[in-house]
Automatic annotation (TrEMBL):
Residue ranges constituting the ABC transporter domain according to the UniProt record: 5-236
Name of the protein: Energy-coupling factor ABC transporter ATP-binding protein
Stored SUPFAM superfamilies: P-loop containing nucleoside triphosphate hydrolases
SMART domains, per the entry: AAA
Family statement: Belongs to the ABC transporter superfamily.
Pfam families: ABC_tran (PF00005)
Length: 249
């Protein structure tokens, strides 16, 4: 399901300091937004507000799936919005258990759940590590596990906070595959990054947080890799996609 988030007069203050005041913004449906700004301007704070993890100092946030029930349970309107942290928290357990955490109580059969988890692990190239404890993973592998865990929930909006920081090219390409899949399903993405890469290349809009507010500016297409390398990467991505057909295992 695709949803839209809209905000009005959202502000965040810390004592006397105004971090930002945003007149209005809209995300979705099927948006891909590159969120930029210097360190400390509030990019992470804004993503947490949009995901319902942080309450703004003032302002209103609404989603198109808002119902009367959300007056009693305000955070329920964010159930289709997922925030992916730069250093994601992983649970004490195996890679397989972490990826399947969000669907463990779903009504699907155990066979279908397993198929989804294995498919997600294949997409991020970690199927051979499914039974390993998360403590043995590298930083890039942990980020791929977190992305797989988010992807398997099929969010309507995925907020990615510096997802490519300290990742190698292969890890970024694996995240791109899942991000592209979500976009094809009609989901929206907001991505923060301090440098252009294959993930930010997916974006069609560019937002800047500057001078305590947010503005939208034209997105100049930046080639993050030489064309010869991109061609190779695209070929590899197509090959990976072809091998990740959803099937029972």
């Amino acid at each position: 399901m695709s949803i839209t988030i809209t905000t009005q007069q959202v502000s965040m203050r810390y004592k006397e300091r105004v971090l930002f005041h945003i007149h209005e913004l809209t995300i979705g449906p099927n948006d891909a937004i590159y969120l930029k700004g210097d360190n400390g301007v509030g990019k992470t704070t804004l993503l947490k507000i949009l995901s319902g993890l942080t309450k703004p100092s003032s302002g209103k946030i609404a989603t198109t799936n808002t119902t009367w029930r959300h007056a009693l349970f305000p955070k329920a309107k964010f159930k289709d919005v997922i925030y992916l942290h730069q250093t994601p928290y992983l649970f004490d357990g195996t890679v397989y258990q972490n990826v399947g955490y969000g669907i463990r109580y779903s009504k699907e059969s155990p066979k279908d759940k397993r198929a989804q988890i294995i498919n997600a692990l294949r997409m991020v190239g970690l199927e051979t590590l499914s039974d390993e404890h998360i403590s043995v993973l590298s930083g890039g592998e942990r980020q791929r596990v977190a992305m797989a865990r988010a992807w398997i929930l099929k969010p309507s909006i995925l907020l990615m906070d510096e997802p490519s920081a300290s990742l190698d090219k292969e890890s970024i390409e694996r995240l791109v595959i899942m991000a592209e899949d979500l976009l094809q399903r009609g989901a929206s993405l907001v991505i923060t990054s301090h440098q252009a890469n294959a993930l930010t290349d997916l974006c069609k809009k560019q937002w800047w947080i500057k001078d305590n507010t947010l503005t939208e500016s034209p997105l100049l297409q930046v080639v993050s890799e030489p064309s010869s390398m991109l061609g190779s990467a695209n070929s590899e991505r197509s090959s990976i996609n072809a091998s990740t057909t959803f099937r029972a295992v």
